Amino acid sequence: MPTPFNTPSSPKAYNTMSTLVLFLQLFSIVPLALGLNHPNCDLTKTQDQGSTLRIFHIDSPCSPFKSSSPLSWEARVLQTLAQDQARLQYLSSLVAGRSVVPIASGRQMLQSTTYIVKALIGTPAQPLLLAMDTSSDVAWIPCSGCVGCPSNTAFSPAKSTSFKNVSCSAPQCKQVPNPTCGARACSFNLTYGSSSIAANLSQDTIRLAADPIKAFTFGCVNKVAGGGTIPPPQGLLGLGRGPLSLMSQAQSVYKSTFSYCLPSFRSLTFSGSLRLGPTSQPQRVKYTQLLRNPRRSSLYYVNLVAIRVGRKVVDLPPAAIAFNPSTGAGTIFDSGTVYTRLAKPVYEAVRNEFRKRVKPPTAVVTSLGGFDTCYSGQVKVPTITFMFKGVNMTMPADNLMLHSTAGSTSCLAMASAPENVNSVVNVIASMQQQNHRVLIDVPNGRLGLARERCS
To answer: Strand, coil or helix: what is 357?
Structure first.
């Protein structure tokens, strides 16, 4: 999802096997000299070390998907809040009535996501940009001839000697919704509201960094229609826990382990990293238990036990932060939501304590869209700490406050989760994860956290 800011960058590489270097530009002040013609934006030179790729923020100056009509700061904030709200509804809709969750809904394809990575697909390899999403299980790729897809970003199956369609008898065909047999291949259709997607389930070789993954299963999208809504021009690469995610399909290579570090919004270099596989993961990491919720089995749950504002542990209703495998409630880490959302009673308790500790005490509280704790002028704010069993995650002002371009307005970048859902999920989002190394270790059932300057 786009963030409300744009910023210049100076990416740096990480000489780590199976490392994807995030090149993220998330704030304001874009010099006229930086654009798609800048040397740092040359996508043909992104594979600098053979095992390193850069990931671009979807709305960065270097992104080919950057909007040609920049919005005002206020409009961007409201737009991102609306997209976050839609994503929260999507995450909450994942409640399953059975243990195997099918491929993600059409909504996941029709919404924009935050970070994109260059992948090589097919034989010979065709470069394509894919959105990275820790809460999705599926890979979507727009294919040539797709009606309603951007023609200049499509993958051409006819040019790949390793491409093949998945047969209807293959087990993967049972993982997609509404499968049908068209031309002896597994096809499926998704409908969300007035929009629909038609795709063939296909396989080909995908290369991320130096690692080729053969017979990788993905949805080869051939038609998008209805509602005036078009999919984002890039494909989608799911890093969730489902059977068709990258982590499951490449389990022999990456051992269901990866970590990422998102840079500070205020950083001048805006480079972080996504490291795939157990090799070269950081050693000085504290862990908490990684939970699996059968009601939303794709998501990465943790047990949030308390929240501290400054030195004060906030009094919270236990049920609002409890992990509940019967309903799907609990707390997740998500890369695709920009601003953290908390169950209403949790958010209100945290917000009220936060307001008490803002200095000067006379600062006037205003609102902007879904943000109800905004200030004019300079204020000093307390830290907020998410407390898990085994590790705490403390967030300073840079992780908490959203500042206008002119710096005259700042808002607490958290909000209440929507209540009209199956069961409320507390979502720890990308802005709050900045400058933290988040390590997902599925085989050992743990999520690691460490403070790290990613820029």
So the answer is: helix
